[in-house]
């Protein structure tokens, strides 16, 4: 099994290019099946989750051509069926976007229930509520979601919780429905806005994305388009926090600084310098980080997908910090692993109480999920001695070339596949 081995203690210094947003890409790929014309997508991240989505689309007859590592040409004019059973797809959360896409265009979809990172219960009741409000019959049988409608008709839908997935899925079901749909209490994340922009570039009529209220007027068809996905807010944030935790100086390039403001603000409170330019953010840490409190919230609040990374950094800050997770109930599983590296963190309910230590010490740990995995790598980069991180398949779901990008910044990290390779690395950096 591949794992990362890290020799910690080197500050990250230099520049790193951020790729396209995974969580925008997953929704955009699914929605590309809603046009019978060719769709060209650029700045698509080459990660396990996006590749699984493409495989699932190809399993129902969507023609997919990789025109470059980060660009793809999609033509869904010859879809052969509307049932997605592909074994891999159930492992990714975003499989549920294929329900909204197929239901929206073909009025029928059968898709295996979504999996994804084990960070909490993750119900899909709000998605189902939206589909039903538009006129679909939705049932769950034998592990499959079955959604069907004679026709879809616009409606006024109030979401009980702010959900990225439900907002996007309902947009897909509504975009070709008869009449007008209003989604209230909609998610405002950058990838929700990017997704709406993508649909509008195919001829949809969606207004208000990025606010609490999204208004959609149904159109008869969606045409082909060429679209470039926005930069990944969370990949960028991860490198920003890695710079801070390692006492580094990193310029994170190809980003939208506005999307990173909640992260930048916390890093400033922790004593870092953060300089923004048009499409880059530079993070410099020259003195020990200071405590602060963080609460995860829907956008524009601090993202839950950055919670493990900031906790790792606060684990090294002077004083006691509180981190409260308000989106997912089971997102502190990595704290046990961090404790093995010397962290002094107690989790009470949805809050982690972090008493900062001087330094982590290297240990053999494993990634419990995607973002926690990246956070543990950051801990390893700061730690005294060697750290090995197992189960890196989780990290590879959402970070392209994570180890290579870190090496470019001076990190001593490599992916190994055998004990021999592990020993070789340790000898080299002993
Ligand atoms: C998306 O998940 C992301 N995944 C997650 O990223 C991210 O953590 C999350 O949004 C929050 O930003 C994808 O985009 C593929 P939600 P999603 O629906 O859409 C509750 C990563 O690391 N809820 O916004 O599944 C839910 O339990 C991943 O990249 C309901 O109660 O999240 C949670 O408490 C992990 N009923 C809250 O809403 C529903 O029907 C927000 O979840 C739907 C959600």
Shape: globular
Q: What is the CATH architecture descriptor of the largest domain?
A: Alpha-beta prism
Proportion in helices: 25-40%
Q: Class by helix and strand content?
A: alpha/beta
Q: How are the strands of the largest sheet arranged?
A: 22-23-1-24
Report low-confidence residues grouped into runs of 5 or more.
Answer: none
Describe the structure.
- The protein contains 14 helices and 24 strands.
- The protein has helices at residues 22-32, 48-59, 97-106, 125-133, 164-174, 190-201, 233-245, 261-269, 307-314, 335-339, 370-382, 393-396, 402-408, 419-429, and strands spanning 3-7, 13-17, 39-42, 63-68, 71-75, 83-84, 108-112, 137-141, 144-148, 156-158, 180-184, 205-207, 214-217, 225-228, 249-253, 273-276, 280-284, 294-295, 320-324, 345-348, 351-355, 364-366, 386-390, 412-416.
- The chain has two domains: 3-19 and 231-429, UDP-n-acetylglucosamine1-carboxyvinyl-transferase, Chain, CATH 3.65.10; 22-228, Alpha-beta prism (UDP-n-acetylglucosamine1-carboxyvinyl-transferase, Chain), CATH 3.65.10.
- Helix 1 (22-32) runs parallel beside helix 2 (48-59) and helix 3 (97-106) packs parallel to helix 5 (164-174).
- With 430 residues, the protein is an alpha/beta fold.
- The strands form six sheets. It has a four-stranded mixed β-sheet with strand order 22-23-1-24, with helices on both faces.
- Strand 18 (294-295), helix 9 and strand 19 (320-324) form a beta-alpha-beta unit.
- The structure holds ligand EPZ.
- Ligand EPZ is lined by residues 23, 26, 93-94, 117, 120-127, 161, 163-166, 187, 304-305, 327-328, 370-371, 398.
């Amino acid at each position: 099994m591949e794992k990362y081995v890290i020799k910690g203690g080197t500050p990250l210094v230099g520049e790193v290019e951020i790729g396209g947003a995974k969580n925008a890409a997953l929704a955009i790929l699914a929605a590309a099946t809603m046009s019978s014309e060719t769709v060209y997508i650029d700045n698509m991240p080459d990660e396990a989750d996006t590749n699984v989505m493409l495989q699932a689309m190809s399993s129902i007859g969507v023609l997919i051509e990789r025109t470059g590592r980060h660009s793809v040409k999609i033509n869904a004019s010859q879809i052969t069926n509307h049932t997605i059973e592909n074994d891999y797809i159930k492992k990714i959360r975003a499989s549920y976007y294929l329900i909204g896409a197929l239901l929206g265009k073909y009025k029928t979809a059968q898709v295996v229930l979504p999996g994804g990172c084990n960070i909490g219960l993750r119900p899909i009741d709000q998605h189902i509520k939206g589909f039903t409000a538009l006129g679909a019959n939705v049932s769950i049988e034998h592990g499959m979601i079955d959604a069907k409608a004679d026709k879809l008709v616009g409606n006024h839908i109030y979401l009980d919780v702010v959900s990225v997935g439900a907002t996007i899925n309902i947009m897909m079901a509504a975009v070709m429905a008869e009449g007008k749909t209003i989604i209230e209490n909609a998610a405002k994340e950058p990838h929700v806005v990017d997704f709406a922009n993508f649909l509008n570039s195919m001829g949809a009529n969606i207004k208000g994305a990025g606010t609490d209220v999204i208004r959609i007027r149904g159109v008869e068809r969606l045409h082909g388009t060429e679209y470039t996905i926005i930069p990944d807010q969370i990949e960028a944030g991860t490198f920003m926090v890695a710079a801070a935790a390692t006492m580094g100086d990193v310029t994170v390039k190809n980003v939208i600084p506005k999307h990173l403001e909640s992260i930048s603000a916390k890093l400033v409170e922790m004593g870092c310098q953060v300089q923004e330019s048009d499409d880059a953010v530079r993070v410099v840490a020259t003195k020990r980080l200071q405590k602060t409190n963080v609460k995860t919230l829907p956008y524009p609040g601090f993202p839950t997908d950055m919670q493990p990374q900031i906790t790792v950094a606060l684990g090294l800050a002077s004083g006691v910090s509180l981190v409260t997770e308000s989106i997912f109930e089971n997102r502190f599983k990595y704290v046990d692993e961090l404790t093995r590296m010397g962290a002094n963190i107690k989790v009470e309910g949805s809050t982690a109480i972090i008493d900062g230590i001087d330094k982590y010490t290297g240990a053999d740990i494993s990634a419990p999920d995607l973002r926690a995995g990246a956070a543990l790598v950051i801990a390893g980069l700061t730690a005294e001695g060697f750290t090995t991180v197992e189960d890196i398949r989780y990290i590879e779901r959402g970070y392209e070339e994570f180890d290579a990008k870190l090496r470019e910044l001076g990190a001593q990290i490599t992916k190994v596949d055998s004990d021999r390779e592990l020993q070789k690395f340790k000898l080299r950096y002993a």
